[in-house]
Amino acid sequence: MKRAISVVLFALLLVSVANAAAKKPQHQRRPAKLSSAPLASPQAAPNYEYFSILNGTPMGLYLHHDTEVGTGNPIDVYMFAIELQVMNSDGNLEPEGLIIDNFYTAKPQQPLQAMNPYNAHDCRIWNGIVLDEIKNQPIQSPTWSYVQFNVAQGARVVQTNEDGQVWWSDDIECWGSKDRFPPF
Asked: Cys bridge to 171: 35, 101, 113, 155, which one at CB 3.0-4.6 A?
């Protein structure tokens, strides 16, 4: 009888461990690697009134050395991976299981006309600040820090040989949230 009970308990333990196994996070790419429409001649800059906004936990910032399609000009490209999180919840980090890989240039297309020619640099700074804040945050904290990655509606892209289509850093920006105050 004891043997039967221990076999049943062991089986229940195996089932619970199998169900608790975390799913592998899925990756989604922004912008799409290949454009469905051919790239036109120089694109007009967006008006910067409307943005696509992505909030989440930074998962990594990677620099790639690439070249532009057709010209072979060197272009440095960042991939900023951000995991979506449930916001305004009970404070437990609740990953959605979706990581968005955002690709953008390290330098602006038009540095003299760009609203902020240091957007790519700012994203790198916010990535570091938020990751440090999360690392030093108490495990049971009811709030947590996150990054916000904004892309202007109509953002310009450049086609690269290895990374595919990437945004110009003129048309993206990053913000960060750092928990400095105790919750209400």
From this structure: 155
Close Cβ partners of 155 (under 8 Å, ≥ 6 residues apart): 31, 46, 167, 168, 171, 172
Q: Give the integer Cα–Cα distance in Å for 5 and 39.
A: 67
> Over the Cα atoms of the chain, what is R_g?
21
Measure the N-to-C terminal CA separation of the chain; round to a whole number of Å: 54
In this structure, the chain runs to a length of: 184
Asked if pLDDT for residue 9 goes beyond 80, the answer is no
Who contacts 168 (Cβ-Cβ below 8 Å, separation ≥6)?
Answer: 104, 105, 108, 109, 155, 156, 157, 158
The residues, any chain, with a CB within 8 Å of residue 66's CB and separated by 6 or more, are: 74, 75, 76, 77, 160, 161, 162, 163
pLDDT tens for 131-172 read: 988 888 776 666 678 899 999 999 999 999 999 999 999 999
Long-range contacts of 136-143 (CB under 8 A, 24+ apart): 137/179, 141/91, 141/179, 142/90, 142/91, 142/183, 143/91, 143/179, 143/183
